[in-house]
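User: These chains co-purify. Model them together.
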Amino acid sequence: QLQLQESGPGLVKPSETLSLTCTVSGGSIRSGSYYWGWIRQPPGKGLEWIGNIYYTGNSRSNPSLKSRVTISLDTSKNQFSLKVHSVTAADTALYYCARHGRPGYYYDYMDVWGKGTSVTVSS
Amino acid sequence: EIVLTQSPDTLSLSPGERATLSCRASQSVSSSYLAWYQHKPGQAPRLFIYGASSRATGIPDRFSGSGSGTDFTLTISRLEPEDFAVYYCQQYGSSLTFGGGTKVEI
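Assistant: Joint model of the two components:
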């Protein structure tokens, strides 16, 4: 059974870089030609798509965040990662990683999600 | 960007009742690329419906999705205690956006 687990610091200082990792277990990140994504939920708000990455390493990001977001892949560790640069309090959120439901579709529904990790931006 | 507006914000119902959740898009969602998720506190969001009307694996048939174009509906025919949660719609026809959610409460 495919499982995803987010990990990373729970507290980041303003203007610094938020770094999170999603570890995939129960399957290989290289198999099936799937996209792997990041989604966040600020406190009291709805879900926001951050971006995704293909098993080849090609990535796409939400235009509202694009200049501050880097998504990368480490197939040897079966992980993919998110970096959000120059963070502010507005980046405080629950961050989720997820797998897209259909191989090869960069815009898609997500059929497997991690449980999420909370990140607070504060000095 | 396609904006999804969900209504109502909160639906107060009792077990056994029927729930009707609405998701309206600011422009047409191509190929009915619309999904619904259930989200409970402390848990991962769970895919319930994709392609506007297809149930995901393991989702009971009391859940049904319908609609096309700009208007979509998630219906729960008879609420069970485990159905009380927040439900989000998401479109994936043009980039990826989510609605603001509808809370189904007892």
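The mean pLDDT of chain B is 95.
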